[in-house]
Design goal:
The chain is built from 15 helices and 11 strands. It is of the alpha/beta class. The strands form 2 sheets. It has an 8-stranded parallel β-sheet.
Length: 339
């Protein structure tokens, strides 16, 4: 078996009830020290210590999203997460944020076991993190940057399709296309992201070559998410087509349609410059929407799969539900017979 066929999960399996919540063994679960190859995305204004610790306690990998945190706030969340779980957890650090160096110092000082870097050059911080004994994963939206991340020494990559919410790749490559291309291009394990919210979509990602999945939108609509309840309810009421990728001149972002989104579209119609778009975006639009609950003037970041989410659940129940669905879907495929 070569290094691209390392999933030790038989297609034919015992009955689903025996499989329920059984651990899955592959390179990702071994790398992170977790039971299930299921990662909760580190989303700004949604992913604090409560969500991260709940996912980790349920057997997945919880991730604190540091992009919306001042250094002292991140330190508080890391300490509270360590107190709330004895399981591995991670911190996501978007490298475009001004406090990135302080965040790096915090995760090293606090001995956070895993760091996900995103939105920048992985070569800048990977060596320093790994020298501190930290496992490093980089989030990418293209084959080219996945290869650069591997060259920089990361332990795994997230291949995130453009269905994902929040900041996104300019190439607009879908998850189904991106994951197998990245899998063929790198030797490190690949985590699939973008449009994944169920066990069946998780199984599909594995068929494409992923060894784990990362879910964001599904965990936005969880009890432990730090998102405002108005945003959670807005997500579970959303319909197909309610999100769009925009603001490519600044940093591509997928957001929900609302009054602010319409202002952005009107700005495009009058050929607004990037400077005008930046002024329109202003400061704290995402906080205003997702964290404070302004559904009209806030920036509402969610993936396309938000339209398929219909209830807010405890994070642990989401993990259990996804893994049960994964096992059921795997069982069904194992029973297929072709002439």
């Amino acid at each position: 078996m070569n290094d691209r066929q390392c999933l030790h999960i038989p297609l034919l399996s015992p009955p689903t009830e025996q499989l329920k919540l059984s651990a899955l063994q592959n390179r990702i679960t071994s790398l992170f020290g977790i039971r299930f190859p299921l990662v909760q995305a580190g989303m700004i204004w949604n992913s604090g210590w409560r969500l991260a610790s709940a996912v980790s306690n349920a057997g997945g990998l919880g991730v604190i999203g540091s992009g919306s945190m001042y250094p002292e706030v991140l330190l508080e969340h890391v300490r509270k997460c360590k107190a709330a779980t004895d399981k591995p957890f991670a911190v996501n650090i978007p490298m475009l944020y001004p406090d990135v160096e302080k965040h790096i110092a915090t995760v090293i000082e606090q001995q956070v076991p895993i760091v996900f870097t995103s939105a920048g050059n992985p070569g800048i911080w990977t060596r320093r993190l790994k020298d501190a004994g930290i496992t490093v994963v980089h989030v990418t939206a293209s084959v080219k940057f996945a290869m650069k991340a591997e060259d920089a020494g990361v332990d795994a990559v997230v291949a995130e399709g453009f269905q994902a919410g929040g900041h996104n790749g300019r190439e607009e490559t879908t998850t189904m296309v991106l994951v197998p291309m990245v899998r063929a291009a790198v030797k490190v394990p690949v985590i699939a992201a973008g449009g994944i919210a169920t066990g069946s979509s998780m199984l599909a990602a594995f068929a494409l070559g992923a060894e784990a999945v990362q879910m964001g939108s599904r965990f936005v609509a969880s009890d432990e998410s730090s998102a405002h309840d108005a945003f959670k309810q807005h997500v579970i009421r959303s319909q197909e087509g309610d999100t769009l990728l925009t603001l490519k001149e600044l940093a591509p972002v997928r957001m929900m349609r609302n009054a602010f989104f319409n202002e952005v579209q009107q700005a495009y119609a009058r050929c607004a410059t990037p400077e005008e778009l930046k002024t329109l975006l202003g400061r704290a639009r995402a906080k205003r929407g997702m964290f404070e609950g302004d559904m009209e003037q806030g920036e509402l970041e969610i993936g396309q799969v938000g339209a398929a989410i219909r209830e807010v659940l405890p994070a642990g129940e989401i993990v259990r539900q996804v893994m049960a669905e994964f096992n059921e879907a795997r069982e069904e495929l194992g029973q297929l017979r072709f002439p």
